[in-house]
Design a protein that fits this description.
This protein has 222 residues and is an alpha+beta fold. The protein has four helices and ten strands, in the order αββββββββββααα. The model has no long low-confidence stretch (mean pLDDT 90).
């Protein structure tokens, strides 16, 4: 019961964030995304409202735990406009983050289009974000029911320091926050960033840079 109380609280937090959404305000009641349209706009084209159904505003499965059996020990289930077409133009989305016990990590990353408000549903999580120059770290240990804000565009992370799986529900001030995972972007870009550039930037020798790039295979798709 306690889990569902925190779960409900997290959803209310997400809903309240709409007032501070960074996406453009809608000019009609809704603009359900038409995923079949070939027209390119800032956002997604509206579906004819006469064919909109309740399913366009619905997603099922956020109560299911994600698979954390990977190198980082974390899983993120992003419920954005790609999963709920009805989010189009509403400036809001949500994600469930599962983090394995004793060292699972949602690696340092940023959301270029959204502020994030994170609520711990289960577990103990060390979280933080780094400001733009002079790169000050704001970090805190969160327990069940605690809430923390990651300002738009800033690098942040979530690290499970507890003995049980952690669950975090995060609301975003965008229908499509975007995500830039720092290590993946730097060492796994397509095409690769020159090892001369990375060696200079990180003050490393090229062999170390080459080794790091090998840990982040170039993706086959964007």
């Amino acid at each position: 019961m306690a889990f569902y109380n925190v779960f409900l609280f997290a959803f209310l937090v997400v809903a309240s964030s709409q007032a501070f959404a960074s996406d453009p305000s809608p000019l009609q009641d809704f603009c359900v995304a038409d995923n079949t349209s070939q027209v390119i706009v800032n956002g997604l084209v509206c579906k004819n409202p006469n064919v909109v159904t309740p399913e366009d505003f619905f997603f099922q499965g956020l109560d299911k735990a994600g698979d954390t059996s990977n190198k980082l020990g974390s899983s993120v289930n992003r419920v954005n406009v790609e999963k709920i077409a009805g989010l189009n133009t509403l400036g809001i989305s949500i994600a469930r983050i599962d983090i394995a016990p004793y060292g699972g990590l949602n690696a340092p990353h940023s959301h270029p289009r959204a502020t994030e408000i994170a609520t711990v549903v289960e577990g103990t999580v060390y979280v933080g974000f780094v400001t733009s120059n002079p790169n000050k770290l704001f970090a805190k240990v969160l327990n069940k029911g605690d809430v923390f804000i990651f300002p738009e565009g800033l690098i942040h992370f979530e690290f499970n320091i507890g003995p049980v799986p952690a669950v975090v529900l995060s609301g975003f001030s965008s229908q499509n926050p975007g995500v830039v995972t720092i290590a993946d972007a730097i060492f796994g870009s397509n095409p690769s960033i020159s090892d001369d550039v990375l060696a200079k930037a990180f003050q490393l020798d090229k062999k170390t840079v080459d080794w790091l790039q090998a840990q982040f295979p170039i993706p086959t798709t964007y």
